[in-house]
Amino acid sequence: MRMSYKRQIAWTLLFAPGMFLLGLVSGLFLQAVPACTGAVFALLVGGGLFVGPILAAGGALGFAGGFALSTLAVGDMLWPLGLWLLPPLLVLPPALLLAMRRKAPLWRLMVDSGVAVLVYGAVSYIAANLILGDPVAHVVDYFSESLRTLQEGAPALYDLVLSLLSGLGLLSGEGLTAGAALDETTRAQLTAELLEMYDLSLRLNLIDTLAKQALHIGFLAPLLPLMAAARAGRAEEFTALPDFARVRIPVKLNLALMGAVVAMWILLLFSSSAYALYLAVWSAVRFVYAVQGLSLIEWFGKKHGWPRGVRLLLQAVGLVLLQTVLFLLGFLEQIFYFRKIGRPTPRDFGLRGKDDEDDEGAP
Predict the structure, then answer these.
(1) How far apart are the C-alpha atoms of 210 and 319, rounded to whole Å?
(2) Is residue 191 part of a domain?
(3) Which residues have C-beta within 8 Å of that of residue 241, sequence separation ≥ 6?
(4) Contact of 51 with 11, CB cutoff 8 Å
C-alpha cells in the first residue's frame, strides 16, 4: 500500500530538518569516519524506499545545506563542499532504489554504487583542477593563513607546537627545547617544513580517503535499507538479501586481492609516487576482508544464540572503530575455514580424495 502524498510531505518536513542537523555536525567526523558517509546514504535510500523520492530529495538538500553551513563556520573557502556533495546525494539513492525494485543482485548494487562514487570524486577533482586550480593548494593556503593567525595571536603557543613537532622527529631543528622561543629564521624554516608535510599528506591520502568513502557507501547504502525492508515484511519487493553469516570471499577474488597488493609492493620499489595508489588498493583489500570478519561475527553470534541487537551492535562498533580487528578475523577465516564454508577438496586441485576410492569398483 503506497503512502499518500500528504503523508509523504509530512514525513519530509520532519526528515529534512533532521538531515540538516546531521549535515551541520557531520563536517567534524565525515572524513575521519567513512562509515558515517555510508550511513547518510543509507538513510536517504531507506527514506525513499519507505516513503518516496520526495523525502529522499528533501533529506539530500537538507544534509548538503547543513554541511555547507558547518564548513562555512570553519572557513569561508570550504562551504562549496556542500554543493560538491549534493549531486551524489540526489542521484545515487533513487538509482539504487530503481535497481532494488528491479531485483538486481546485491553485489552488483554495492559494486556499482561504490564505483559511481569513486568516478564522481575523481572526475570532479580533475574538473576542479582545470577550472579553479589545484584544490589541495587552496586548502594548504588556508592552513597557512591559520598558522599565521596563530603565530600573531599566540606566539608562545605557536613556538611550542613547532618545538613539539620537531621533538617528535616530524620537523628538523634538533636540540630544540619545548617551550623555547624560536628565532625568526628557525620559525620560518619549521613553518615551511610543516606546510610541505601537510601538502604531501593531503595528496597521499586524497585517493585513499575517496576509496574509503566509496567502499562504505557501496556497502551500507544498499544493505541497511534492504535489511530494514526485510524486517518490515517487504523483502519480496526488492533485491534479495543473502544469508550474511555465510558470506565468503570467492577464491578468484581472494587471488585478485593478494595479487593487487603484491603488484603495489613491486611498483613501490620503482616509484615512491605510487604510494597514494597503494593506500587506495590496501584500503579496498582491508575492507573486503573486514566484511568477511563481520560475516564471521554474525555466524558466531547466531551459533551461540546471541540476540540480533547484540550482533548488530558488535558489527557496527567493529565497522566504525575496529576495522583492523575485523580484517584480521576475515583473513584468518580465509586460511582456517572456521565456518567450514568453501573449503577446497582434492578434486578442486585435480587430485584424488578418499571419497574417490569407492568409485573404482562402481559399474
Answers:
(1) 17
(2) no
(3) 106, 226, 227, 230, 235
(4) yes
Asked whether residue 180 is assigned to any structural domain, the reply reads: no
pTM > 0.90: no
Distances 75 to 62, 140, 272 between C-alpha atoms, Å: 20, 13, 33
Secondary structure in 3-state letters for 300-328? HHHHCCCCHHHHHHHHHHHHHHCHHHHHH
Which grid cell is 256?
Answer: 585478485
Residues 6+ apart with CB under 8 A from 149: none
| Residue 53 CB coordination number (10 Å) | 16
* Residue 134 within a domain: no
- Calpha distance 80→68 (Å, rounded): 7
In tens, the pLDDT along 119-176 reads 999 899 888 888 877 878 888 888 888 888 888 888 888 888 888 888 777 787 655 5
Q: What residues contact residue 211 under an 8 Å CB cut-off, 6+ apart?
A: 118, 279, 280, 283, 284
CA distances (Å), origin 177, targets 82, 147, 163, 168, 326: 42, 20, 7, 12, 41
Q: In 133-183, which ranges are continuous DSSP H helix?
A: 135-153, 155-167
**Residue 160: left (phi > 0), alpha (psi -120 to 50), or beta?**
alpha
Say which residue the cell 544498499 belongs to: 222
Q: Please report where in the chains the cell 576509496 appears, as a residue.
A: 211
Q: What is the identity of the amino acid at 54?
A: I
Query: Tens digits of per-residue pLDDT, 44-79?
Result: 999 888 888 888 888 999 999 998 888 887 766 778
Q: How many domains does the chain have?
A: 1
Beta carbons within 10 angstroms of residue 230's beta carbon: 14
Q: Is residue 269 part of a domain?
A: yes
C-alpha cell at 285: 583489500
The residue range of the domain holding 306 is 243-343
